[in-house]
Amino acid sequence: VQVVESGGGLVQPGGSLRLSCAASGFTFSSYNMRWYRQAPEKEREWVASISSGSNSAEYADSVQGRFTISRDNGKNTVALQMNNLKPEDTAVYYCNVWWSSSANYWGQGTQVTVSS
Protein backbone atom coordinates (compact mmCIF):
# COMPACT_ATOMS: atom_id res chain seq x y z
CA VAL A 1 0.00 0.00 0.00
CA GLN A 2 1.29 3.44 -0.87
CA VAL A 3 -0.15 6.93 -0.61
CA VAL A 4 1.83 9.89 -1.93
CA GLU A 5 0.90 13.50 -1.29
CA SER A 6 1.79 16.47 -3.47
CA GLY A 7 0.81 20.07 -4.06
CA GLY A 8 2.01 21.82 -0.94
CA GLY A 9 3.84 25.12 -0.95
CA LEU A 10 3.99 28.69 0.28
CA VAL A 11 0.88 30.82 -0.12
CA GLN A 12 -0.24 34.18 1.20
CA PRO A 13 -3.19 34.47 3.59
CA GLY A 14 -6.43 34.35 1.65
CA GLY A 15 -4.86 32.28 -1.10
CA SER A 16 -5.61 28.77 -2.32
CA LEU A 17 -3.81 25.47 -2.76
CA ARG A 18 -4.88 22.09 -4.06
CA LEU A 19 -3.32 19.01 -2.51
CA SER A 20 -3.39 15.65 -4.21
CA CYS A 21 -2.85 12.11 -2.96
CA ALA A 22 -2.07 9.23 -5.29
CA ALA A 23 -2.90 5.80 -3.87
CA SER A 24 -1.86 2.32 -4.93
CA GLY A 25 -1.64 -1.22 -3.65
CA PHE A 26 -5.24 -1.60 -2.53
CA THR A 27 -8.78 -1.39 -3.92
CA PHE A 28 -9.06 2.39 -3.72
CA SER A 29 -12.75 2.57 -4.53
CA SER A 30 -13.64 0.41 -1.51
CA TYR A 31 -12.31 2.64 1.26
CA ASN A 32 -12.90 6.01 2.83
CA MET A 33 -9.98 8.39 2.50
CA ARG A 34 -8.86 11.05 4.95
CA TRP A 35 -6.64 14.09 5.22
CA TYR A 36 -4.85 15.00 8.44
CA ARG A 37 -2.41 17.75 9.31
CA GLN A 38 0.26 18.38 11.90
CA ALA A 39 1.48 21.83 12.84
CA PRO A 40 4.82 22.37 14.58
CA GLU A 41 4.73 21.21 18.21
CA LYS A 42 1.12 20.12 17.89
CA GLU A 43 -0.56 16.75 17.61
CA ARG A 44 -1.72 15.45 14.27
CA GLU A 45 -5.35 16.38 13.69
CA TRP A 46 -8.03 15.14 11.35
CA VAL A 47 -9.04 17.59 8.59
CA ALA A 48 -11.49 15.89 6.26
CA SER A 49 -12.88 12.53 5.15
CA ILE A 50 -14.65 11.27 2.05
CA SER A 51 -16.60 8.06 1.67
CA SER A 52 -15.64 5.39 -0.82
CA GLY A 53 -18.29 6.43 -3.31
CA SER A 54 -17.95 10.18 -2.74
CA ASN A 55 -21.50 10.44 -1.43
CA SER A 56 -20.41 11.72 1.97
CA ALA A 57 -17.75 14.16 3.13
CA GLU A 58 -16.99 15.48 6.57
CA TYR A 59 -14.80 18.34 7.76
CA ALA A 60 -13.22 19.61 10.92
CA ASP A 61 -14.90 22.75 12.20
CA SER A 62 -11.72 24.72 11.62
CA VAL A 63 -11.83 24.14 7.84
CA GLN A 64 -15.57 23.81 7.19
CA GLY A 65 -16.62 26.08 4.35
CA ARG A 66 -13.04 26.68 3.18
CA PHE A 67 -11.75 23.20 2.28
CA THR A 68 -13.27 20.66 -0.08
CA ILE A 69 -12.29 17.00 -0.30
CA SER A 70 -12.89 15.04 -3.49
CA ARG A 71 -11.79 11.79 -5.10
CA ASP A 72 -11.45 10.16 -8.48
CA ASN A 73 -11.87 6.41 -8.20
CA GLY A 74 -10.84 5.98 -11.81
CA LYS A 75 -7.46 7.55 -11.13
CA ASN A 76 -7.03 6.40 -7.49
CA THR A 77 -6.55 9.94 -6.28
CA VAL A 78 -8.01 12.10 -3.54
CA ALA A 79 -7.70 15.87 -3.47
CA LEU A 80 -8.05 18.63 -0.91
CA GLN A 81 -8.95 22.04 -2.29
CA MET A 82 -8.03 24.68 0.27
CA ASN A 83 -9.38 28.20 -0.13
CA ASN A 84 -9.12 31.32 2.00
CA LEU A 85 -6.06 29.93 3.71
CA LYS A 86 -5.05 31.27 7.09
CA PRO A 87 -1.70 31.27 8.89
CA GLU A 88 -3.11 28.70 11.30
CA ASP A 89 -3.51 26.29 8.39
CA THR A 90 0.28 26.02 8.22
CA ALA A 91 1.14 22.36 8.74
CA VAL A 92 2.32 19.18 7.11
CA TYR A 93 -0.71 17.59 5.44
CA TYR A 94 -1.04 13.81 5.31
CA CYS A 95 -3.22 11.46 3.31
CA ASN A 96 -4.52 8.41 5.18
CA VAL A 97 -6.36 5.17 4.55
CA TRP A 98 -7.13 2.45 7.08
CA TRP A 99 -9.35 -0.57 7.35
CA SER A 100 -8.15 -2.28 10.52
CA SER A 101 -5.85 -1.73 13.49
CA SER A 102 -3.03 -3.35 11.53
CA ALA A 103 -3.81 -1.65 8.24
CA ASN A 104 -3.33 2.07 8.75
CA TYR A 105 -1.32 3.82 6.04
CA TRP A 106 0.13 7.31 5.81
CA GLY A 107 1.99 9.24 3.16
CA GLN A 108 5.18 11.19 3.75
CA GLY A 109 3.26 14.45 3.97
CA THR A 110 3.37 17.73 2.06
CA GLN A 111 4.21 21.06 3.68
CA VAL A 112 1.72 23.92 3.49
CA THR A 113 2.92 27.31 4.69
CA VAL A 114 0.57 30.28 4.84
CA SER A 115 2.49 33.48 5.34
CA SER A 116 2.81 36.99 3.96
User: In DSSP terms, counting alpha (H) and pi (I) runs of 4 or more, how many helices?
Assistant: 0
Give the N-to-C terminal Cα separation: 37 Å
Tell me roughly what share of residues is in helical segments.
Answer: under 10%
**Structural class label:** mainly beta
Overall geometry comes to: globular
Average pLDDT, to the nearest integer?
A: 97
Rg (CA only): 13 Å
Count of DSSP strands:
11
Question: What string, H for helix and E for strand, traces the elements in order?
Answer: EEEEEEEEEEE
Percent of sequence in beta strands: over 45%
Largest sheet: 7 strands, mixed
* Low-pLDDT residue spans: none
Plain-language structure description:
This protein has 116 residues and is an all-beta fold. The chain is built from no helices and 11 strands. It has strands at residues 2-6, 9-11, 17-24, 33-38, 45-50, 57-59, 67-72, 77-82, 91-100, 103-106, 110-114. Strands 2, 4, 5, 6, 9, 10 and 11 form a 7-stranded mixed sheet that branches. Strands 1-3-8-7 form a 4-stranded antiparallel sheet, with no helix packed on it. It is globular. The model has no long low-confidence stretch (mean pLDDT 97).
